[in-house]
Amino acid sequence: MTWPAGAAGLGPGAPGLGYVCKEMETTPAAEFDLLLRGHVRPLYRYAYRWTGDPDHAEDLVQETLTRLFTELDQLRQIERIRPWATRVMYRLFIDGLRRMRRSPVTYVGRSGSTGAMLEEEHEEIEAPDETWDPAALTEQALQQERIEAAWPRLHELHRVVLSLHEIEGYSLEEVATIVDVPLGTAKSRLNRARQRLRTLLTEGTNSDSGACKSHD
Amino acid sequence: MIDDLEKLRERLKAMPVPEPRPGFVDRALATASGTGSTHMRGIRATLARPAIWWAAGAGAVMASIAWLVVMGMHGSAPREAAVSLALNESREISLVIDSERVLEGATIRLYVSGGVALEGYEDQHEIEWMASLNQGANLLSLPVVARAPGDGEVVAEIEHDGRTRRVSVAMHVSARPTSTTPVRG
Q: Which of A39, A61, A196, B79 has its CA 20 to 30 A from that of B117?
């Protein structure tokens, strides 16, 4: 698989992670570990945003790694492993959704109540704001709450494109390759996802203000 | 309402992601390459009734969370997305709880709603007990009986250390009672 020119240097590319020391005698398992270790947590992060559940996310990553190990020969040739692995994970995610919709069995996720947050994201939330403005901070916190309430209500495909493009910084070309659709389709899917998210946020805002009015 | 795309991105990026379980990266890589414990390594324990598990696991200490798989459901109702039962019909639902290691004192809960009940526990909509799980697959057979027409649900939940795996099986009970006369071929 080829990835669009100019994509190198983006977060998902993680330069250097695909390097394997050719001189070393390694077992396939050790080589696989070396190639993939740096990508497991990012894959888990994507999977969590797609599935909304840490257990499902772990299952999806496990399934992805198991599949990738069978393609070790191909992995050795790939310059940028993460988008490729993400594409494999996306296919497994979609296959799982299809299976689930045809089955009477539903896996209902529930995250741990005391689950610690990933450090980098935690830092982002806790970063001190030099322009201390309680009203603005309250509004920010409200917006954050609304986003987090709206996210699980988005369609799975919308969560995928938003998480890859808006959160993880994949270009639209890369997103199109990962979800295996033409660029135009990826673009319109992203636009629809943004639109849908905005609609859900507006509904959230209206219901907030509605609640205030009913108090009055 | 967030109008600005950059602000929207900021808020999206700030959405929290819980940590995976400790050791997940090592375990996942080892399992994928076959150097770790394999998933679904065979049935180690066949326990027909919750009461046996209760007796086996009471008072033990918790360890690790397990996988929950419902066996044989895909073939039974591939299109309707519900297991169909006739009125008064009994059906065994097999749950496989696949544990990465010996797990003592996991909490198992069953919730039954709608027109179905668990045989032997027909007045109880919720059953909870503690169980010790072997490493590998542990089979739990749930005898479900259709008691009233309509939709129902059986939910099984296993909990350890604040993490939960939950699986729900949609059931549908048709008004036609199950035949007591053997069908001739």
A: B79
